[in-house]
Every structure is written in C-alpha cells, then in structure tokens.
Design a protein that fits this description.
The complex is a heterodimer.
Chain A (H helix, E strand, L loop, with lengths): L3 E4 L2 E5 L4 E7 L6 E7 L6 E7 L4 E4 L2 E6 L4 E6 L8 E7 L8 E2 L3 E6 L1
Parallel strand pairs in A: 2-11
Antiparallel strand pairs in A: 1-3, 3-8, 4-5, 4-9, 6-7, 7-8, 9-10, 9-11
Chain B lengths: L3 E4 L2 E4 L5 E7 L5 E7 L6 E6 L6 E2 L10 E5 L2 E6 L8 E8 L8 E3 L3 E5 L1
The chains are: A mainly beta, B mainly beta.
C-alpha cells in the first residue's frame, strides 16, 4: 500500500521567512495530494491541494509543487506569520473514496 | 464546506467501559470515515462507515472493538468498546464529497477520550 514520508518533523522559522515541507510517496498511481493544517486543539483543515495533472498550485502565501517522476511534493509558505504555527500533514490518495494516507506531520513554529 | 458535529467533544472514561461517539453532518454525503489521532501523532483511518451495511475496517482495527453504525447519509456512530488506557486518543469523524470536490476531506472537531 501507499506510504507517505514527511520532512522535517519540526521546523522553526522567523516571522517573514519562508518555510518548506517535503513529502514523498510510494505508489506512483496516487493522483491527489492535499495538505492539511491542524492548529492546537482544533480539527485538521484543508489548506491547499494538487492533482497529478498539475505541477504547481498557488494560493496567496502558500504553494504546492508536485514532481510525479520523483514521487514527491512540497508545501511552500512565504512571508510566514505567527498564525501559521501549526502541525501540517500531507496526504496521498489514489481514488475518490479510498484511504487517505497521511504523513507523520510537521510542527511549524513561526517565531516573532 | 460541511458542518460536522461530533459529540461528546471530550470524555474521561473508566477502563473496561464503552463509549459511543456520534457524528452528524448537515448534508447528505456518500463517504464517511472515522479516524484516530493518538497524542502527538498523525491521522490513522479506523474504518469507512457504509450506509446500510457493515463498515470497512483498516488493518489493525476490528468490529468487535470499534463497532460502527451508519443508518443514513448524514449520521454515524463509533463505539470504542472495553476501553483501556491505550485507547486514549482523539477520534475524528470525516466526510468526503464526490464530483468536483472529490478527495477533499472535512473533519469534525473530534472527540478527545481519556481512559483511566
């Protein structure tokens, strides 16, 4: 089955700097790659996603890139702010209705 | 996005007892799931709740321990049976829409269980 790795496990950046989180997946047939943000004590929420027919997607300060050949995708956050501090989970999915395989998570701390 | 209500939001339970968690969605959805999130860990799928039939369990999870009901397209329950301290976790209900939103998971607020 699918296996998703995520790095780093923790990341501290200064406010205003950029943050990059990387994930690799094992099943080349996976075609949907979402990123979820979970603030302390709250539910995970989808912040951005990318499908396999796209190489990059951007939404304001966040972007996701996908390299299907290398089987990895990355989350980029620019101009980080304290409210970006959270745990971020990547996931890979093969088809609608199938099991989302989540990465182990990255705890991002944005220092003021 | 979906409004997903879970209850209880938290509970403290005694070893050996069982607790049922309810999940109510404000609209009909095809796919409903139950996840477990152990302290400081990622999200692990327990099972897919199938409307009108038995749930589909992931490896490591069994119906006797985590019985699930889904009587209609907006409601599901998860029971954690014969609890032990190792069952202390956050349990999350989630739904997935099809069509243009296929693949997007929406989560309930979670039910934080502490087993003493």
């Amino acid at each position: 089955g699918e296996n998703v790795e995520q790095h780093p496990s923790t990341l501290s950046v200064q406010e205003g700097d950029s943050a990059v989180i990387k994930c690799t997946y094992s099943d080349s047939a996976s075609n949907y790659f979402p990123w979820y943000k979970q603030e302390l004590g709250k539910r995970p929420q989808l912040i951005i996603d990318i499908r396999s027919n796209v190489g990059e997607k951007k939404d304001q300060r966040i972007a996701v890139t996908l390299n299907k050949t290398a089987k990895h995708f990355s989350l980029h956050i620019t101009e980080t702010q304290p409210e970006d501090s959270a745990v971020y989970f990547c996931a890979a999915i093969l088809n609608y209705g199938q099991n989302f395989v989540f990465g182990p998570g990255t705890r991002l701390s944005v220092l003021p | 996005s979906a409004v997903i209500s879970q209850k209880p939001s938290r509970d403290i339970c005694q070893r050996g007892t069982s607790l049922t968690i309810q999940c109510q969605v404000d609209s009909q959805v095809t796919m409903m799931f139950w996840y477990r999130q152990q302290p400081g860990q990622s999200l692990t799928l327990i099972a897919t709740a199938n409307q009108g039939s038995e749930a589909t369990y992931e490896s490591g999870f069994v119906i006797d321990k985590f019985p699930i009901s889904r009587p209609n397209l907006t409601f599901s329950t998860l029971t954690v049976s014969n609890m032990s301290p190792e069952d202390s976790s956050i349990y999350l209900c989630s739904v997935e829409y099809g069509g243009l939103r296929a693949g997007e998971l929406f989560f309930g607020e979670g039910s934080r269980l502490t087993v003493l």
